[in-house]
Prior knowledge:
By secondary structure, chain A is mainly alpha-helical.
Amino acid sequence: MAANVTTPGAIEPKMWMGGIEPMKASYGKLMMWFFLISDTFTFSALLVAYGTARFSFPAFAGKAADFSFSNMYWPIPEKVYEAVPFLHGISLPLVFVGIMTFILIASSVTMVLAVEAGHRMDRANVEKYMLWTILGGFTFLGCQAWEWAHFIHGTDAGSVMKVIENGAWAEKTIFGANLTENQYGPPAFADFFFFITGFHGTHVFSGVILNILIFFRSATGFYDKRGSYEMVEKVGLYWHFVDLVWVFVFTFFYLV
Amino acid sequence: MSEVHHVHNQDPNAGAEQRKAIWKTFWILLVLTALEFIIAFTVPPGTLKVSVFIVMTIVKAFYIVGEFMHLKHETKSLIWSILVPIIFVAWLILALMLEGNAIFEAIFD
């Protein structure tokens, strides 16, 4: 038995001798990357479905100033998302979603700063930046909760839509949106809003939970004892991915 | 354990260059997002506007994945294992948008 044990460094390691990390990344990091690729497929499935539905539906043809909500064409997003908390009745297109984007980018920066502090085994800074990241995550979730609440309850006036009820066309005032009715446009538009931002929000939520776990473990000295802060890096990859998905959702759902 | 801590804390300037790169990336992302807002309200709707938005999104994605997720500094084989599936996904998105357009023409034209 003892004869088989080699002294570290006694033999020069070669490719197929074992003990070499493929792609020079640790097992956990590599698996996180491949998980993220599979998660990309799920999100792209949602975006592909959105693109197909949008291109198979009439777009609003007139000027943006003449726009009014109708289920006969796809709405202009800046006309849908124009509400900001505490500023009731004032039209501020895309301002709130802009603030949300900024919060998520800023929390991504504090996350990468925590990873960088982890490389230096700088526990105090890992804790500080993890707390900022957690705060950013919760703020984003709070913003999203408000946005959903506003989207579901709708505007004061609602919009008059022609819908089929009991087999006949009827005029009906619709307030807000759910999975079958939508005051902002065709019901499919609201469905995609709920599914895409909801799926992303779920990811943010699980990211915040993981971030809290990382904060707890660094604060209790777990990673110091282990001698490595690599877990911060792995969870960091996940958190940046969530930010990345938002960049795409922001463009394809709110801007285009 | 305390020994490990001591060794790593010797140089207060360690990682200063990395932190600089992080903040630089932050400003690039912020400026691009601000530009997207300006374009959203100044450029008339059309193919040009959509193309500009898509290009800016890809640039932002490049900085997030390359710098924040550190992929730019990984081995080539890892970079390609991530990029190749993404290229197929981009094709799928394009193909189904064309398909959606065909559905539109069949129903409404």
